[in-house]
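thoughts on both lines:
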Amino acid sequence: MDQGKARDFWQIVVDGGATLCKLLDASLTDQGLQEGLQRIGRIVQRLRDAAADLDPLLTVEVDHVPAADGTVRRISVSCNHDPNGIEAVQALVAAAPAMPPPTRSRSRRPGPWHAS
């Protein structure tokens, strides 16, 4: 994996993280549902494009998950359950910097959904 591109990917996460967290935490009706969804979509698409530039099997999802210490924002790096992409997933996640709370990164293993 190109380490420079991996650093660039994570820099996009860091640079867009505050905006993305603010959008995810806000009530979308406060800012207009359509506009809020479009802004989230643009950030997520930028992450997906950067991941695909590293390896075409990579994709990214962003969501909220409950945790013992409160809700966290999660960035999931996946290879769409294609075993050929697992090394790229592992390499990209391994290159992740420490994420500021309450954001976490993770990889998703290939296989059935229940194996995630």
Remarks:
- Residues 3-108 form one domain.
- Confidence is low (pLDDT under 50) at residues 107-116.
